[in-house]
Amino acid sequence: MPAENAPVAGNLDDDDHPSYTMGRAADVLGTTAAFLRAVGEAGLITPLRSEGGHRRYSRRQLRIAARAREMVDQGTPIEAACRIISLENQLDDALHLKREMRRKLDQYGADT
């Protein structure tokens, strides 16, 4: 396989690779481009831009947008849904950091 194709093959497993155009992302989520723009404007996701300025979404971003879509479908205003998901993500990050710190402290204690 030529070296120039290696990055493309690697992108198949990359959840953060911006593989989806706005139209395709909206189709996959069963929503509209306006919904994706609103989620972006609320700061929940930030799509990458192609050289032509078109929004491109990753699978990770689509999962986040799908969560927002579920909440909106249940009656939560989009701004509130985005804020809730953002706070959930911050909590997950903090809990992960706490576990890592605890692991390192436990490891340090075992070394002394």
Automatic annotation (TrEMBL):
It comes from the Bacteria. This is MerR family transcriptional regulator. The lineage of its organism: Bacteria, Bacillati, Actinomycetota, Actinomycetes, Kitasatosporales. It comes from Streptomyces glomeratus. InterPro entries: DNA-bd_dom_put_sf, MerR-type_HTH_dom. Residues 19-87 form the HTH merR-type domain. Coiled coil: none annotated. PROSITE patterns: HTH_MERR_2.
